Predict the structure of Magnesium transporter.
Amino acid sequence: MDPIICEAAELEVEAYPLLDELTSKISTLNLERVRRLKSRLVALTRRVQKVRDEIEQLMDDDGDMAEMYLSEKKSRMECDQSMMGFRSNDGLSVSAPVSPVSSPPESRRLEKSLSMARSRHESTKSSESATESIEELEMLLEAYFVLIDSTLNKLTSLKEYIDDTEDFINIQLDNVRNQLIQFELLLTTATFVVAIFGVVTGIFGMNFAIPFFDDPGAFKWVLIITGVCGIIIFCAFVWFFKYRRLMPL
């Protein structure tokens, strides 16, 4: 039982700094270390829970606790062996030749009543000693039960802290993912606006005669008008994203 408690204390000391480091710096190495830590935590929690259930079941059964008191059990076995030896000796004495002078019936009855009273007294003393032994063992088991229950509560709190850390990391990753999606959306919109200039360039590259192309300042006005239209289109897209709450602008 002590190695389990020591292992739980070591795991608790190792876990909290590692989880704090993971919240500040999310990396593959830290995630792998937390994964191994969680596997150890789950296995240790099952062991502690099993020990706790066994102690609780043992405390509810007085017969099992009486069987665990080995010194009392050993003394009973020695007493039974001595009684068996006494009976065997008594049987030998009975099988021996009987003297002509037999003991009177009153003395036999008196010895029988004395032996019955002695056996009742011994059984009463043994039951009282067994009750005291069970009470002592129950107090000892209660102390271990409190210790194991406290260890189980610490492991449960550690598991909840790991779950909270995982939720926090998932929220951070979702936030980064949303920022990337927003940047991609702005980049796609800017690419669409720049593509308008490509369309205008393609039009001016056509091999057909237009009187407007003969003016030297025509291309400048075309670029100005195209740039203004592109800015208006880009602003319209941004306003639409803001209106539909696609971007926190």
About this structure: Residues 185 and 247 are 9 Å apart (CA to CA).
